[in-house]
Amino acid sequence: MNYLDHLPILVVAIPILMSALMIMLRSRPTFQKILNIIVSASILLMSIILLLQVWNSGIQVYEVGEWGKYGIVLVADLLGSGMVVLSCGISLLALIYSLDYIEDKSLNTTYFSLFNLLMAGLNGTFLTGDIFNMFVFFEVLLLSSCGLVVASEYGGVTKVSDKMEATFKYLMLNIISSMVMLIAIACLYATVGTLNMADMSVKIAAMSDAGTLPWHIYFIALLFIIVFGNKAAIFPLHYWLPDVHPTAPSPISAMLSGVMIKVGAYGILRVYFLVFKDALFLLQPIIILLALITIAIGAIAAVGQKDVKRLLAYSSVSQIGYVFLGIGMGTAYALAASLVYLVNHAIAKSMLFLTSGGIIHHAGTRDMDKMGGMVKSAPLMSSMFLIGAMSIAGLPPLGGFIAKFVLFDAAILGEYYLPVLIGFAFAVFTIFYMFRAWLLMFWGEARDVEKYGPYSSHGLSPMITVPIVVLAVAVLTLGVYSEPLIALSSEIANQLLDPQPYINAVLGGEVR
């Protein structure tokens, strides 16, 4: 038996097993930490091998259990396996950061279990070939992330009541989203008689070709905008994000902004370009409109923030709008640009949230008006925040510059002149609020010690600084050597626009 054939299930099942094991190992905290790092690194390695397998040998299909050919199927194509690599990489760094950032009481009881469930939910979402299982993995993500948001960090400045309020809002809005998704799935199943997305694609295409496509298919497709839009926090479904991301511990903020909101973008790419490709002519203008409003609202709101994590949260709202703008344009180049943007934002924003944790630890506050002059007392945090800010702002030579350049280039080539003009205008806003934040925190005179107290003299451990530096190196690398990411994104875009190989692999290919 070749274990490499089982990689699609291993990257989902191992975190689930680890979640249960962590409950039993609560009395052995040191062993918990070592085991989690080893296993998370192993899962990252497996995800990279899976991506290489898909790149070299084509789409991998894995049948789970004995419930028939279309029972529970995991499908690893370039999009799914690429997202798993991104998710596992950021998860590993966030986990290392957590070891010295999360209070022992939280870390040794529920944190590791919930974190592993979060990883399982992410990997399962990216690999499932079944839309009901996508719903199940969404629920795993929701419940695990709710528990992680209320985890306590050392020297935390966020009140427990604020965490609970944000979590309640997050939970309620996502429960409504889940109900909408269930209704949409039930309507789809009643229409096409299957939950397998490849099978759905074939049956809906056949109805479209025969001219018998029922009108409510378009309505169901619109319902999925609510579902995935809520996950991605696009307008008008973004209200939960600016409360949840700042109140969560910084490694969880990094996971939420770096990976979790990308689940919504992934859902749109997977479901719309596979299942509802005949309805794209109706959906794409809606996505572009929502993307532009999201870009504007996030950027405008970010300008007025004094709370560094709240600024980063509103920035995430604005930046996910750029990802959706590329999806809405829908050409191969625009989709590739959207994916390049997605990856660069995931890495840079994760780094900024992890850096913000170090800044808050040093200053003892999230209020940027109560900081100043930290370039002298926290030079590493100053450099890291500047790199992340420059990348999000789209300045060379960082990954964010390449992301914005290819996205605007795709928009111009596709003759989307007004969207690119709006996107460019609010990119200027991004430069303003990111550099304003850096100047408030790091430049000028040090803060009034009598009024706000001295900065912490306690240094940051390697477990906190190393993940930030690794992400900074990734941001720089994607800026000066972006060709591999662009090539991978272009190939993924081609697969999205021609889903027949995916359909053939699931319905007609060899199923393990």
From TrEMBL:
Main location: membrane
Any coiled-coil regions, as ranges: none
Transmembrane segments: 6-25, 34-55, 70-97, 109-126, 132-151, 171-195, 215-240, 252-275, 281-304, 311-336, 384-404, 416-439, 460-481
Entry keyword set: Cell membrane, Membrane, Transmembrane, Transmembrane helix
GO CC, alphabetical: plasma membrane
Keyword Transmembrane helix: yes
A GO term for molecular function: NADH dehydrogenase (ubiquinone) activity
Pfam family, one: Proton_antipo_M
GO biological process, one term: ATP synthesis coupled electron transport
Compartment(s) of residence: Cell membrane
InterPro entries, alphabetized: CPA3_Na-H_Antiporter_D (IPR050586), NADH_UbQ_OxRdtase (IPR003918), ND/Mrp_TM (IPR001750)
Domain NADH:quinone oxidoreductase/Mrp antiporter transmembrane: 129-430
Membrane topology annotation: Multi-pass membrane protein
Domain of life: Archaea
UniProt-recorded name of the protein: Proton-translocating NADH-quinone oxidoreductase, chain M
